[in-house]
Amino acid sequence: MAELLAWLLDSDPALRWQVERDLAGEPPGVWEATRARVATEGFGARLLALQDPDGQWPGGAFFPAGFSGSPEGGQPWTATTWSLNALREWGVDASVLRGTAELLAANSRWEYDDLPYWGGEVDCCINSWTLSNGLWLGADVAGLAAWFVEHRLPEGGWNCEWVEGSTRSSVHSTLNALKGLLSCSGADVLAARRSGEEYLLRRGLYRRLSTGEPVAPWVSRFSYPFRWFYDVLNAADYFRAAALLDGSAPDPRMADAIGLIRAARQPDGTWLQSRRHPGQVWFEIDVPAGEPSKWLTFHATRVLDWWDSAQV
Q1: Mean pLDDT (the chain, rounded)
Q2: Alpha helices, DSSP H, located in 182-227
């Protein structure tokens, strides 16, 4: 473990501070100092420097300005929402982005119906990230929490294709919705979060209710950054965060999913990158497919430590 930990600590501040806090057990003074460096060094500093004067990245809310929608190159991951997601997940303090919420309110509109940025649009995943980013930056996103309560589907989860008439929940949409709701309070929001969690837990995080078979092969193929894609590691990482927030024990229905995560661990204790999701990026933050990923190894080790510490 010492060798693995040293390998993980030899990383960009965006990852290192999380390793220090969650795996190395460093006191707050250590990991908080590393976290503060994210805004001035490495990935965080590079991405902050790419922000446009109007508060956006590069000229668009979800897609870059002028994006043609060409499917061959995949979705670009450079626009405002994706850039804010990365900075928030890397631990950048909101004060570093002082004024960004106001700039986006004034200058950024969704590609869907030209709707104002902080009001969200119709896509569950987009609205979840907007909710999280708005809470982080101090924008008025109170209406978005209520939106999720109102748009929960009969199975208990969400589906971005509800606007096309779908009434069945999606694992992708449900997990992303839950991540946004995790930062919110209120009885209605908590009830919605519980129903979404139950939707995933009844399926053991990856099985079909009808047959018990995996939803798809990709549930056990781990890639970082997670983006909007579902896999059992991404889901288990959410349930860890939710359990710590709620002060609850791991749900035993996750046991088989935890087994999939454990089975993917290599003999040297690392996890391999499955693939890079296609699409334009500002710069790569993780390794190509087939190589040991520090980000995946961190998340998977953290999940297994949490799970195993409760199995006494």
Answers
A1: 96
A2: 187-201
